[in-house]
Design brief:
Layout (H helix, E strand, L loop, with lengths): L1 E5 L1 H8 L13 H14 L3 E6 H38 L5 H34 L2 E3 L3 H12 L12 H22 L4 E5 L3 H4 L10 H10 L1 E4 L2 H8 L6 H17 E3 L14 E3 L3 E6 L15 H8 L1 E8 L6 E4 L5 E3 L6 E3 L6 E6 L8 E6 L1 H7 L3
Parallel strand pairs: 1-2, 1-4, 2-3, 4-5, 8-14
Antiparallel strand pairs: 6-7, 8-9, 9-10, 10-11, 12-13, 13-14
Helix pairs in contact: 1-3, 3-4, 5-6
This protein binds zinc ion (ZN) (2 copies).
Length: about 375
């Protein structure tokens, strides 16, 4: 019997029903991962332990999962309105076809939503049925001292280091406590993808030197990803290629989420103050040579140049305050002021100008690359 501890991110990833890349509701890797995990729990190969801190975070994040589902419900409503509008414009010429289309579309999305609701509830049940452990006052005091000494996981400036520390330290306390029951230390696995907090530059994918002593003492096996941990439990569960795609998927999920720069968790007790970035958007350089689309394109130099002068950005909106955020081509996220004409990336200095879009959608503007002078000038015109 192996005891497994997952950090909050792993639980959220398991429950998350939205493909982080396409934003589609789909049967992504988290579905497969969850099935394998459940199987091992059923076979009694694994017992899951859950910290009270993870439980609190989970309750917050469960709302996030459902928020994503409601987002899709809203999108479906908009799409159905569009079909109705098309129907009116075409004056019943395609009415029956459009009605069929609406029916098929609604049925498809509803069954996807249903599947995902069942999935999230299933993950919640697994978490609820797991063994709970809590951080004692002594553990909290110990973690505070550790923080003062700036030892891992308190090496960066990330604000969730305390939660990370308590998750691990209280797990170690728990393991020491149950030792009496088992006579020796049972096998424990601790999974956290938080490499910045738990690993050092020199330790690679192994646990940070500051933590190695206490982790080794009770024989905890540390893994950065759940698929790798499950392979440790049963090496027939995944092959190397599967692990690689799953790890990429988890990484994408982690990096596409971003805490809102405008509001904080205090503004929204449901913890919806985060941004999930949407599909890539191409941003064209307005100073690239103009090409007439009706003209025959020949492989001249400037045709190639135009393609090079396109960058990709990601756009997302806070679920709580709706503030738009743009992830620049360089990876830096900037909060967008609705009253500004554009923005300059604080890291790489790329200057973006808003361009009005005709539709009355939330995305009422796109972006184009301009020179810093053009952005400046736009404020005076
Ligand atoms: Zn916000
Ligand atoms: Zn940038």
């Amino acid at each position: 019997m192996i005891h497994l501890i997952l950090d909050t991110n792993n639980w959220i990833y398991l429950a998350n029903s939205i493909d982080p890349l396409t934003e589609n509701l789909n049967e992504g890797y988290h579905f497969q991962l969850f099935e394998k995990l459940k199987l091992k729990v059923r076979e009694k190969a694994i017992t899951i332990l859950v910290s009270d801190l993870v439980e609190i975070e989970w309750n917050r994040n469960q709302n996030r999962c459902f928020a994503l589902i409601s987002k899709h419900k809203n999108r479906m409503k908009d799409d159905l309105h569009t079909i109705d509008r098309i129907d009116r414009v075409l004056q019943s010429e395609f009415h029956d076809n459009l009605l069929d289309l609406k029916k098929a579309y609604t049925k498809h999305i509803n069954s996807e939503i249903e599947k995902n609701q069942v999935h999230i509830e299933g993950v919640g049940r697994l978490l609820g049925d797991s063994i709970k452990y809590t951080a004692t006052l002594e553990t909290k005091a110990f973690a505070s001292d550790w923080a003062v000494e700036k030892k891992a996981p308190f090496t960066g400036d990330k604000k969730n280091s305390m939660a990370d520390a308590l998750l691990l330290f209280s797990a170690i306390d728990y393991i020491k406590e149950v030792r009496g029951h088992y006579g020796s230390y049972p096998t424990f696995i601790f999974v956290s993808g938080n490499k910045a907090d738990f690993c050092s530059k020199t330790s690679g994918n192994e646990i940070h030197e500051d933590l190695k002593g206490m982790v080794d003492e009770v024989g905890i096996n540390f893994f950065l990803s759940l698929p790798e941990a499950l392979k440790f439990v049963d090496n027939t569960l995944f092959d190397a290629a599967e692990i690689e795609v799953m790890n990429d998927d988890i990484e994408n999920f982690r990096t596409r989420r971003f805490i809102c720069q405008h509001c904080s968790e205090d503004d929204d007790p449901d913890g919806l103050n985060f941004i999930e970035f949407e599909e890539d958007e191409s941003v064209v350089d307005s100073n690239a040579p103009y090409l007439d689309p009706s003209q025959l394109r020949l492989p001249f130099d400037d045709v190639v140049r135009e393609k090079d002068l396109k960058v990709t950005i990601l756009r997302g909106y806070c679920f709580h305050c709706e503030t738009e955020h743009i992830k620049c081509n360089c990876g830096t996220v900037t909060m967008i002021d609705v009253f500004e004409n554009g923005f300059e990336c604080p890291k790489c200095g790329t200057t973006y100008l808003k361009e009005k879009l005709p539709m009355g959608d939330r995305k009422d503007h796109s972006y184009k690359l301009v020179s810093p002078e053009e952005l400046e000038d736009s404020y005076y015109t």
